[in-house]
Amino acid sequence: MRAGGGFDPPFRFADLRRDNGDAHAGLRAGLLAAQAAIPAKYFYDALGSRLFAAICCLPEYPLTRSEARLFAERGDEIAAAAGRGRLLIDLGAGDCGKAERLFPLLAPAGYIALDISADFLREALGGLCRRFPELPVTGVALDFMRGLNFPEDLLAPAQAPRLWFYPGSSIGNFAPEEARAFLSRIAHAGGALLIGVDLVKDKAALEAAYDDALGVTAAFNLNVLRHVNRLLPADFDVADWRHVAFFDAAASRIEMHLEARRNLEVRLAGQPRRFAAGERIHTEDSYKWTPDGFAALLEQAGFARPRIWQDDGGGFALFLAGPA
């Protein structure tokens, strides 16, 4: 029983986020810069996490379906290569749905879900534990882009070999050098890595995936302003901004921005910031890779040459990399 009544959840949970004054100062400094920017991690408050789950269902965003088909059609092969009975560590777990679909294939010895949105993760793990009551489950609220340092006693069962799981295309949020450094930290932590990567494809298809007809991605992008309002606090009015997304072929990345609809002034923790009509806040980059390019990146990060599974259309790939 918890103090004050009620039962403890059937999973361990640690909140290791560092949402302190320094973190908020960095957010404020980014918004006050000449080229205003908000780090993509601020998308994922509770509403942002739900909006992203909705994006994954959109017809313009085939990545999630491509990944699911690969697991459905090649899952036994992938599981045989990855190994059963591992400790599955889910990077950016969200609603835990992608990892849960792998449980029958991988038969994990334990499951550790990492995500920056603590409340959303707790809710997801509650349902997961009801469906898998015998599986050791740990939730960790963590900004893992800053590092993967969390107490070893959270890694249970500790003796099980690790399989790091980073599905979707979230690695694309890192610039190439940042991606190499992040992957190096995973390689240093030990174990294998199963990662999804969005590949270079037709420009129109890429831009539609980030600017869908229903406007769900626009709502996801605009919601970051509400999150910033609560954190700093600030007084952004979402109606003053519009969603912008485009593919920069030279950099091989999608860029997302919020563009001011009029001249306006926002107060950021009491400090004024003027935006001219048409001025933008940079909210996300999503880099797209070729299969050979990403395989080389994994090797540079300290992994062995990976196994690769590609969807039929050639727009998405799963990479499995073990220790070098």
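The above is record 1. Record 2 follows with the same two-line structure.
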Amino acid sequence: MLIEAFSEAKDPSAPDTNEDRFVVLPGRAYAVIDGVTDRLGTRYNGMLSGQYAATIVKEALEYALTRPDRPTDTKLLIPILTQAIADAYRTHGTLDAARSDVNYRFSSTLTVALIGDETIDIALVGDTGIRINGSRILQIDKDLDLITSTLRQKAWPVIGARTSDPVIQEKTSRRVTWFGTRQPHEALADILDPQDLVLIEQHAVTACVQALPHVPQGDIETLVRGGIVNAQGAYQNNTSTILGYSALDGFEVPLSLVHFERLPRAEVRTIELFSDGYFRPGADFGVASWEEAFRDVEREDPAKVILYPSPKGSTATHWTDDRTYLGVKF
């Protein structure tokens, strides 16, 4: 067996800010966890909520899978991890606040592979992914992310017409994505005028309606106008909408939003788990190949507004996101 792993924070000079985690229990389980970026700046035990969520999930997962009565079905893991986060809310006295406002929740994604005698059981919560045998990729693509990415994509040239400073362009585009087109204009007054936001909203809604004809226009408008902070939370673990997506946040995770798969162990030569900081998989197995693909992406589209649309991009000092790779060759 060969195991390779790599993780780097979006700010390489501050590795302690990394919100990704990985789990290696050789011959038993492997996982990659991505804490959801904090929306309010709240700290728990000295960590932002995304880091805290990822740490809770990692510790709870390792504890559950090293017990004599460890679960052998990935479906049984979800309530265990959910309970661990709920217990943390109780510890900090924030359970009621988290229940009423999703922005007070600490959340994470998870890709986990449980290794059995005859099978490998996989579960995907959120948008971390896994590649099997170097070719088949399992990853949940959210239409919701396409909407917020398109919002930033349409804001980018409008902002670029107002400033030649790439740092300001990135910062402003993120703020538009984060708080939407109907945020108080004072926060953007140094760069954009009110008509700019109207134009960005029109272009973003039009593009999303064309790209996502199955999504109600009202939902698209809600996300464009409210942005990630004001609108995205309503879709988390929500099965009543086509834009619903899963996350571990201490409250019920509908299993219909989680991808489960069982593979014959004899047919699996490699598994490669990864967080969404990788926009393109490596050509081959291993950290070196995935990092080469990462460098290619950064060279081709560092701002993530052309080939790899994203709600945020890279700058001279920060990558777009934390990234983690965990490869196992059996």
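The chain has two domains: 2-140+246-304+314-329, 144-235.
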